Amino acid sequence: TRGEWKRMWKQRLLFLGLSLLILLGIIKGGEPVLTADAPAAIPKEQKYIALTFDDGPRAATTSRLLDGLKERGASATFFLVGEEIEGNEELVKRMWREGHQIGNHTWSHVRLEGASPAVITEEVQKTESKLEEVLGDSGYWLRPPYGLVTAGTEKQIQVPMVKWSVDPRDWESRNTEKVVQAVLKDAKPNSIILLHDIYPTSVDAALQIVDTLQAEGYCFVTVEELLALNGVTPQAGVMYRDGNPS
Ligand code: NI
Hints:
binds nickel (II) ion; alpha/beta; elongated; two-stranded parallel ribbon
């Protein structure tokens, strides 16, 4: 019948059309434009998070952490105590080479809150100079010890400052499982997590945290990258506690 004839031609045209598309695809890119009916993988909405490590470097624990981060393709930020850099220069260069952000945690881990302007300048500048000497770059961001500076002294700080939004108090428990659970309970996209790479338990915890959150679709970036990804332009003397635009 006329209906069947029409349907047959429709099928033929459809077949020809599809063959042509596949052929064009093969000629153009080597891969057919149409493959079986497997849908393209839908990308998960990207979630970014930053791990930060204070008080290092310490040869044994920090190198093991760097090995683990490298294996997992995770970046982190290290706030270094100036007087710990001596003798660990190669380790600091390795952090830098492997794409981690390096920051300043004062020369001798002094509480900047309540310190005199002269002490603040000396403690910050000495570490800045040491890092400039080792790495040849400048303007290392500051994490004040205990996350505190006296209100009004921010103007003295010529770089952005970094606090945190997730603190598992790893230095207190020194218990891998407790640290992992405390971080996973509070971690959200754009969190800045505080850990200390001078404890073996914190290194173990950090790597477990990376494994768990990567499986949930998180990408581990430096603090600088986290801010940039959120369109935040870092300002000198301003304290950032997470990556969220304020
Ligand atoms: Ni500290």
